[in-house]
């Protein structure tokens, strides 16, 4: 960003150790990492590869990311609001009353009775004529 210029790999291998304290052996790896992350642009012109990074591109990238995150935030807020309304709507008619408590208690008792009956049916399953016929076959 500082020099606002276009460089070749050779130039960067000379400049980076002096100005930034990066070893010349790792310049190529670091540069490739920055290219992969989209922080540095590269282009092949003829037989040479040129690298550059301008502050304006980084600024635009940050602005784009900020706008994207703000839109996601707005969308999530709307979703949350809709869910809150849905919760409020579903609570209507489910107020805790004595009648509701009695019905819930009755429901639990009926479910327990159903489980007991299932267990009893399983207990006598071997005497079931269909099962006996199946075993004979």
From TrEMBL:
Pfam families: Mnd1 (PF03962)
InterPro entries: Mnd1_HTH
Residue ranges annotated for the Mnd1 HTH domain, each copy included: 3-55
Keywords: Coiled coil
Coiled-coil zones: 59-127
Superkingdom to which the source organism belongs: Eukaryota
Name under which the protein is recorded: MND1 protein
């Amino acid at each position: 960003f500082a020099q606002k210029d276009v460089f070749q790999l050779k130039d960067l291998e000379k400049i980076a150790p002096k100005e930034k304290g990066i070893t010349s052996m790792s310049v190529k790896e670091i540069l490739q990492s920055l290219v992969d992350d989209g922080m540095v642009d590269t282009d092949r012109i003829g037989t040479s590869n040129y690298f550059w990074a301008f502050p304006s591109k980084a600024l635009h990238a940050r602005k784009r990311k900020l706008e994207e995150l703000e839109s996601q935030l707005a969308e999530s807020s709307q979703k949350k609001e809709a869910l809150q309304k849905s919760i409020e709507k579903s609570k209507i008619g489910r107020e805790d009353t004595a009648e509701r408590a009695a019905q819930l208690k009755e429901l639990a008792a009926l479910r327990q009775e159903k489980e007991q009956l299932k267990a009893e049916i399983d207990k006598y399953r071997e005497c079931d004529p269909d099962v006996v016929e199946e075993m004979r076959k």
